[in-house]
Amino acid sequence: GTRYQRYVQGEWVGMENAIYDTLEREKHLVAAPDGQPWVKSAVGVDYGTVHISAVVCVSEDSGGRIWARECWTGGEDEQAIIDTVRSMKVRYNAYAGVVDPIPAMQMLASKLGFVRSGTMGGKASGEGSRVANIVRVKTLLSNDAIRFDLNGEGVPDLFSEAQMYRWLHKDTENLEKYIVDRHNDDRVAAMEYAIEALKTTPESRPAHAV
Question: pLDDT by residue (tens digit) across 148-206?
């Protein structure tokens, strides 16, 4: 399949069932302009026990384009996540954030002063909120409103993961649908949560100390 063609044969082929199939390395993974003014920033956290945890900061520039600016990955150590979020809040003036909707993140969300994905406006969290985030990002891509900072720490790895992000086809006797492949998706999930925070958190919402 495409993974074998990419990693073994070295061929540049699109990921089968790619979610963000319009991503182009030369177009979307570029250095942020020097002196670029930033309007607002937000942080997303994806928590992992089996897989890695990831924290991503995104910022909106003065032209309305969203940039992925930094991506941290690590284990499930809560303090390491809190320290990373605190650092990003200070360096990027990130006033808002969204975390993984799983129950284990409820307490951490409170400590961070963030909310869990899908809970804004009383919406239920879970698979529905994940799909809603994908639709949001795909819409931004279709409007040419997303970039990945080539010089941002961990961002090239985030971009590569986004290109490999794909749907899995589930076909049973009673059900046929596509679901997100939950392998190697932690960085992308954190980015989606950060964009959710940026686009859905009221600007009047005060920043919380961590």
Answer: 999 999 999 999 999 988 765 555 555 445 555 566 689 999 999 999 999 987 753 44
Distances (CA, A) of 106 to 29, 84, 94, 143, 207: 33, 18, 20, 33, 18
